[in-house]
Write a structure and sequence with these properties.
Layout (H helix, E strand, L loop, with lengths): L4 H10 L22 E5 L2 E4 L4 E4 L14 H11 L10 H13 L5 E5 L2 H16 L3 E5 L18 H4 L20 E4 L4 H8 L4 E6 L15 H12 L2 E6 L10 H6 L5 E4 L10 E5 L1 H8 L13 H15 L2 H23 L4 E6 L2 E6 L7 H4 L4 H13 L2 E2 L5 E3 L6 H17 L2
Parallel strand pairs: 3-13, 5-6, 5-7, 7-8, 8-9
Antiparallel strand pairs: 1-2, 2-3, 4-10, 9-10, 11-12, 12-14
């Protein structure tokens, strides 16, 4: 079993300079402790203890092409000798935007930002400007960034949230401002949406089209189509947060795979394969509000030159379809292999998603929303993830697995062998 004491020592020493020793609250509390890495290549990470880990975190999703893919690194390296930050435009950002419009169904125009959380704020502002309304609907268990106006009911305690059909918004952190213009609803329930839209005060609806941040839950048949119809009927802006699913579920994201086109789309993660790039893309009638300056959107580091070079290189590769074809083989083998190992070990399980990103849960079948999803045996799964980590396999304790083109058959075989050993020992 692997030792992680070197990482612990590094984090404890670093805590003298970095609050908590980590630079994201989501890294706090990791078992056995937050890890410190010395290198990353392909689908492997090397940590401060010299452990080599097969990585299914993939930077929390961005590394569709694996860590440090040659084409992307070479593009970024070439740009280092050209420009870094020009407080103006480069051809690179136009090329990147054109590629997005060619790949994502809703993308008639694009604006880049540095994070998905920022792009969500632009979407909210645009929806309100377009409708002259103020309220936004979000759903329990969906995550759209850590800003005050949307970091509500991401992982709420149902005993605090109250009625399942009309939840009380639950703040995600201390020090958070009021969410007075936010309406929280259960996902996958069309009736509660129409009930709200009839009031005529909803500017926009934001959702993950596939619920991967908490639970790995697919939309019920016809649900997205019905939401689309209702938004059109009541003049409400439909926003898909495709930070996880964009370019990962398919070349056209979840909307391309599921055939439902929103008004605005939030993109990030796989968009630039590890570089700090996100975007809001959407229909011209809405994006023109941003383009005209009626809706303010700014950012010093938007379209930073090196990041844009990496974005173009990443999108050019994704557009060929080859990355998804490659992962279709390895990802499917992993999903099928996991199902076999769980079944052989008599572990009740469900695997939901795509070869590029899927979710595993224990002791529960068929949840349709956050509250039914949290009935899965999350403690058992977290213990499973921890035991795998000690065997050199790094997976997210929440159940999401990310695959890359760098994962090969030998990595899948090693992973399944480790899973088999962990299950034999009992979890």
């Amino acid at each position: 079993m692997m030792d992680f004491s070197g990482s612990l020592a590094a984090v404890e020493a670093g805590a003298a300079y970095v609050a908590g020793g980590v630079n994201s609250g989501f890294r706090t509390g990791a078992r056995p402790n937050p890890l410190v890495f010395t290198s990353a290549s392909g689908c492997k990470l090397v940590d401060a203890d010299g452990n080599v880990l097969i990585d299914y975190f993939l930077g929390m999703g961005p590394m569709l092409l694996g860590h440090s893919p040659k084409e992307v690194v070479d593009a970024a390296r070439r740009q280092l000798d050209v420009s870094l930050l020009v407080a103006g435009q480069t051809q690179l950002e136009y090329d990147a935007a054109r590629l997005i419009t060619e790949m994502v169904p809703s993308a008639e125009l694009v604006r880049f930002s540095s994070s998905g959380a920022e792009a969500v704020q632009v979407a909210f502002r645009t929806a309100r400007a377009a409708t002259n309304r103020w309220k936004i609907i979000k759903f329990e268990g969906h995550y759209h960034g850590w800003f005050d106006n949307v970091y509500w009911s991401v992982a709420p305690d149902p005993t605090i949230a109250g009625d399942a059909l009309h939840p009380i918004p639950v703040a995600g952190t201390q020090g958070q401002e009021t969410g007075e213009n936010l309406v929280v609803l259960p996902w996958n329930n069309i009736a509660v949406i129409e009930e709200q839209l009839k009031n005529g005060d909803i500017a926009g609806i934001i959702m993950e089209p596939i619920m991967f941040n908490s639970g790995g839950i697919l939309p019920l048949p016809g649900y997205l189509e019905q939401v689309r119809e209702l938004c059109t009927k009541y003049g409400t802006v439909l926003i898909f947060d495709e930070v996880i699913t964009g370019f990962r579920v398919s070349v056209g994201g979840a909307q391309g795979a599921l055939g439902v086109t929103p008004d605005l789309t939030i993109l990030g993660k796989a968009l630039a394969n590890g570089f700090a790039v996100a975007a809001i893309a959407g229909k011209k009638e809405f994006m023109d509000l941003v383009g005209s300056g009626k809706v303010m959107h700014g950012g010093t580091y938007n379209t930073q030159s090196v990041s844009m070079a990496a974005t173009v290189a990443t999108l050019e590769l994704i557009k060929t379809g080859k990355p998804h074809a490659t992962i279709a083989s390895t990802g499917s083998a992993l999903m099928e292999g996991l199902a076999k190992e769980f079944t052989n070990a008599d572990v009740m399980h469900e695997i939901v998603g795509y070869p590029t990103v899927f979710n595993v849960r224990f002791d529960l079948h068929g949840p349709t929303d956050y509250r039914s999803g949290i009935k899965a045996n999350r403690e058992r799964y977290a213990n499973f993830a921890f035991e795998l980590l000690k065997s050199g396999i790094r997976i997210l304790p929440r159940g999401t697995w990310f695959l890359s083109t760098a994962h090969e058959s030998i990595d899948i075989d090693k992973t399944l062998s480790a899973v088999r050993d962990v299950l034999k020992a009992g979890i």
